[in-house]
Amino acid sequence: MIRHANANDKDADAITQVFLASRAAAMPYLPRLYDDEQTRAFITHVVLPQCKTWVVESPETGEILGFAALEGAMLEHLYLSPDARRQGIGTQLMEQVRKASPTGLTLRVFTRNTDARAFYERHGFRQVDENDGSRNEENEPDMTYVWQGRA
Fold it and tell me: 72 vs 9, 12, 36, 105, 142, CA distance in Å?
């Protein structure tokens, strides 16, 4: 089940846990710049107030399995719990984000995150640039992808 995230402690905690677990599992090469509480503050005070954010809940347990955060036409975040991957949950979130921004989307992905790059390419995104890492705080090379949407 997809729903809008709420700006409450329960959703902020769950989104933070998905964010941290996903990054640790999918991108172990990234430096850990912030502790858990700082990350939760970022989710609470930046992501939830500034982005349209959706979560996918397990119909059986109510557990949040993934989330997507959209700021304007920029997909800022799309993360899944590591054990929720390859079940169509990312595709459901992508469909929701596309409905909210039907004329197009932009996102950035770390170059080494080949699974995410393949996911976005399967969903019609194309790479438009590469960067040496100077535009992100992890100093990790990244790429910009766009999806043209419908005119």
Answer: 24, 21, 27, 9, 20
Q: How far apart are CA 115 and CA 117, in angstroms?
A: 5
Q: What is the pLDDT of residues 41-88, one digit of tens each?
A: 999 999 999 999 999 999 899 999 999 999 999 999 999 999 988 888
Determine the length of the chain.
151
Domain 2-147 classification at class level: alpha beta
Domain residue limits, the chain: 2-147
First to last CA, the chain: 29
- If phi > 0 it is left, if psi is from -120 to 50 it is alpha, else beta; for residue 72 that is left
Dist. CA 106–CA 77, nearest whole Å: 11
- Please say whether the beta carbons of 110 and 141 come within 8 A: yes
* Sheet containing 52-57: order of strands: 2-4, 52-57, 64-71, 74-80, 105-110, 142-147, 126-131
φ, ψ for residue 107, nearest 5 deg: -155, 165
pTM over 0.90: yes
